[in-house]
Amino acid sequence: AKPAKDYLTVINGIGPKVEEMLNTLGFSSYADIAATTAKSLTEKMAKVDASTRRFDPASWPKQAAALVKKK
User: Is the pLDDT of residue 56 over 70?
Assistant: First the structure.
């Protein structure tokens, strides 16, 4: 069974629309984000919506990893 979905909006820089997109791309938990790279996030998001280039996910994996440790 897949673990419960995390509120990705807790991560600085992720709003409700970006969270929805990340969920669509298969990222539903802090662990999912922590296990990827900023470059990979940027590439995957750009395939869905070119306007996502204005987002900078550089710190998202690190923030997600910190949240995983807090759980």
Answer: yes
